[in-house]
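As the work plan foresaw, the team has encoded backbone shapes as discrete tokens. One protein thus recorded appears below exactly as we store it.

:::
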Amino acid sequence: QVQLVESGGGLVQPGGSLRLSCAASGSIFSIYVMGWYRQAPGKQRELVAVITSGGTTNYADSVRGRFTISRDNAKNTAYLQMNSLKPDDTAVYYCNTQSRAGSVLAWGQGTQVTVSS
């Protein structure tokens, strides 16, 4: 099994920045993709950004150019650098890991990001 621990959420003003971290432990050999999803109140959970073990990335159109996902394979940790934050970015952000076959291995507990003046 894979366990995920997230950190880095909080309250930030519009235009500000935050950095989220997701540390994986357990059966880390099975992890291929690490990613971030978010869920705002009354909305479905949506993909934010994902990264493969080889460094290939994919972003939602709404965050491309503002958010950067990265990964330290030696530390089994993924990061989401969020810049130029907007109120619409307010949501609970969840870390996710998937196997090479596309199976979901684990979800994090979620971390709240609130963008407000």
